[in-house]
Amino acid sequence: MAQNGLRRPTTDSPTARTTPDADHTFRLLADDERRTLLGAFEEAEHVAVEDLRDHIAADADDRDHASIRLHHVHLPKLADAGLLDVDADGDVVTPTDRGRALASRLEA
Length: 108
Prior knowledge:
Elements: H1 20-29, H2 32-39, E1 47-48, H3 49-56, H4 63-80, E2 84-86, E3 92-95, H5 97-107
Antiparallel strand pairs: 1-3, 2-3
């Protein structure tokens, strides 16, 4: 029993903690810019990295910082999670089936 007097759910319980994969996905989606990036694929099959940068840049002065965040943080995390594929040149991004499914749920 937990300190607050409530019972902790067992692993067989329908209220048990989420899976590690789900926890990881929730942590990824906790970032507004990553949710915005996934939303960019609502109507496009492929999106240029440059366009994604403009999607998350607060203003023209933020474009360089947005580019750095994309290349060094957001795109690697989303690609490692199997949500996006980045082409060999690093210029074009395509959502995976899992990324598309997740993006459609974010819009719902």
